[in-house]
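Appendix B. Extra example for self-study. Work through it before the problem class; the solution is given directly after the inputs so you can check yourself.
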Amino acid sequence: MSFLMQQILWGAVLPAAIAAMLLVFLWRAWQRQGVPSHVGTPFALALGYLFAHWRVLGLPRTFPPVDSSDWLFVGAVVFAVWGFMEHRIGYAGLWRHLGRLILVAAVSWLVLRPLVGNVWQGASALLWIASLAAGWWVWWSVQAHLADKQPGFLSPLILSMVAGGGGFVLLWSNSSSLSQMSGAVAAVAGVLVPLTLWRLNGVAGAGGVALLAGMLGLIWVEAIAFVPVPIWRIGAMALASLSPFLALAPPLKRRSVWIVAALCVVVTAAVLVAVMVPTYRAYVASAGAYGY
Amino acid sequence: MKTATKLFSAVMLLWGISLTVPVAAQTYQIDPVHSSLVFRVKHMDTAFVYGMFTSMKGTVIVDEANPARSSINIEVDANSVNTNNQQRDNHLRSPDFFNTRQFPTITFKSTEVRRVNANTVQVRGDLTMRGVTRPITANVTLTGKGKNAQGRDIIGFETTFTVRRSEFGIRYGLPSLGDEVRVTLSIEAMR
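Solution. Structure tokens for the complete assembly:
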């Protein structure tokens, strides 16, 4: 098996299969007891992601992690627990936002702290960390809002597209490992789409979206801070993920869900292509005629 | 004549002392302009690709009479990696490889030096790369001594050793990009 095929198998195909099998298993097990099918979603998605991380990047070398890449592994566990809590405990809106803010601020500080003094000095370090955490928190809250308003397949579909397209942007921005992990997020998010259409309506739930928004946000924060990927590229990807807002527009509310979904897909794809093309051109230009 | 005899005796005495009393250890600073750190790694199990780090600093303490008191400390700027391809160099600086924003330096600190033969010592020490410290052992050969253009004492060493990058958490691209990295370090130090 070629290296590329092996990476796709370990980093996307098998993680998606693991997540799908777990989701169906949990749904069947809990169906008889009246437990909603989305309760176990963050854990199923996280296990799929963790498998990819283990096979592609290896297990974390230390705990707490020292290396930025190892934090992604820990992040998947933390966001799975948080996603479960968001659904199970059912925080009131304000507490949910505040809890997310504290979580995002804490994770940002833990992950980005090694750059203080190395890359960012003094007050600018705090400004960088606070800005990245705030951006992540706002984006996550918006995604949760969209998923709440559109509980079907649209949110996971668009997040899967953005994570997949973002994987190419990260690849062409000199980070194959973050690219592959973004691909793993795309794969496990993508699983939710057919399952939702099949019979598990609402399977993504707030917990699943929490896991996806947490992981994608952490990958993007690491990409900006450690690679570093230009902020505009990440910002454009975040923008691409907001297309489900179109479904909330009054003129489109009465339209068929398929037409609205198609429109959202086209808009998301257009924004992604607008980021990917210049990123790829810059990548090719700096690689030389032979690549490397 | 008596004075001359006394003077001669004194000179001979001092010379005798200088032969019997061990010379103090001498501290040299690494000259980055005349030192090289070159590495090679196998690409797609086919050919070796070479790269180098262009910026380093450090100290070499040389005690010829008692090599066990010698030591070497080196700090390499990981951002100075150069493989003659800008794209690849940027990739090598990323978290896929050296993660230079988090780990901007690669360091080596010797822990033990012992003589192997007249021109070679075996150096044990701790190599720290990407936040991971591993012990390594290498035979270091004295390649020369003399004075540079400014009249300062200079001394040269060279060593070649192999490390497994996976042991330092650099696992990206395995096994297509080789795990074993052969490192050649040539140092010119001056005082």
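Self-check: The interface with chain A takes residues 83, 85-88, 90-91, 93-96, 99, 101-102, 104, 130-132, 169, 171-173, 176 of chain B (CB under 8 Å). If your reasoning did not lead you there, revisit section 3.
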